[in-house]
Design goal:
With about 280 residues, the chain is α/β, with parallel strands linked by helices. The chain has two domains: about 5-180, Rossmann fold; about 190-275, N-(1-d-carboxylethyl)-l-norvaline Dehydrogenase, domain 2 (Orthogonal Bundle), CATH 1.10.1040. The protein has eleven helices and eight strands. It has helices at about 15-25, 35-55, 60-70, 95-105, 125, 165-175, 190-205, 215-225, 230-235, 240-255, 260-270, and strands at about 5-10, 30, 70-75, 85-90, 115, 140-145, 150-155, 180. Strands 3-2-1-4-5-6-7-8 form an eight-stranded mixed β-sheet, with helices on both faces. This is 3-hydroxyacyl-CoA dehydrogenase.
């Protein structure tokens, strides 16, 4: 596949690594964020991520340099006027995402494909933010954290997504070393419905003093073969995001996805995980 110009909007943990993934695959990639301090810090963070991968023998030093050459940070959306594929990875808020897509729709070329990395919001809802001519080229691409290591991408067509858009994006994901699966456009898609049911039960075990968070993580890694335990993962992605996702799933599917009281207490206390410096295990 041709190395097409790619753009990623949102330079947080997910967006930065999505951009890194496409730059690694040889695509000229640009990245931006609404916050100047995030834009200023992101290249150093990604350089560190690549350096660690080189140290583990995953990449060569030459690949490290080439990837950074393929990636640049820009100040705003005006630079996205020549992109052929744009992934949105901004804050998990419907209004913010719609505003982003509405702005991009007036900037990007007509043939540019749009994708959202939302983990919970229906793709057809987000597609309503762009003109009817763009909707056949709009879908969801749900990557998983840490993106540079996790292979799966859920590809979610909206109501009006053209079949060729789905195939093109699945090919882009495969070419970038990912394994895409096609998922119906429902709240939470597939993996998050399984994952958060699992997380809720893990928190319940701690509430009932069956195990500590460390013991649950050890059990899941050694007994189930998971690469990380549920509490390590919650600390990584943030407890507040987990609470938000579970509330969305609860609204869609009922009380089986009700966030546990202990999770709500952690969030209210500011124990949000790794970025806060305190969480379940941070």
């Amino acid at each position: 596949m041709d190395r097409i110009p790619v753009g990623v909007v949102g330079a947080g943990m997910m967006g930065a690594e999505i951009a890194l993934t496409f730059a690694m695959a040889g695509h000229p990639t640009i990245l931006t964020d609404a916050k100047a301090e995030v834009r200023d810090a992101v290249m150093e963070r990604l350089d560190s991520t690549l350096a660690k991968a080189v140290a583990r023998g995953v990449f060569s030093e030459a690949q490290h340099r080439t990837t950074l050459d393929n990636l640049r940070v820009v100040e705003g959306l005006g630079s996205y006027d020549d992109r052929r594929f744009i992934v949105e990875a901004v804050f998990e808020d419907e209004a913010v995402k719609k505003d982003t897509f509405s702005a991009l729709d007036g900037i990007a070329p007509d043939a540019c494909l749009f994708a959202s990395n939302t983990s919970t919001i229906p793709i057809s809802t987000l597609a309503s933010a762009v003109g009817e001519g763009r909707r056949s080229r709009f879908l969801g691409t749900h990557f998983f954290s840490p993106v540079h290591r996790m292979k799966l991408v859920e590809v979610i067509p909206a109501f009006e997504t053209a079949p060729e858009t789905v195939e093109t994006v699945m090919d882009l994901c495969r070419e970038a070393g990912k394994t895409p699966i096609r998922v119906k456009d429902v709240a939470g898609f597939a993996v998050n419905r399984v994952l958060h049911a699992f997380m809720i039960e893990a928190v319940r075990l701690v509430e009932e003093e069956v195990c500590t968070p460390e013991e649950v993580d050890t059990a899941c890694k050694l007994g189930l073969g998971h690469p990380v335990g549920p509490f390590e993962l919650m600390d990584l992605v943030s407890n507040s995001l987990c609470e938000d996702v579970q509330d969305i799933l609860k609204d869609a599917y009922g009380p089986r996805f009700m966030p546990r009281p202990l999770l709500r207490q952690k969030v209210a206390a500011g124990h949000d995980g790794r970025r806060a410096g305190k969480g379940w295990r941070a």
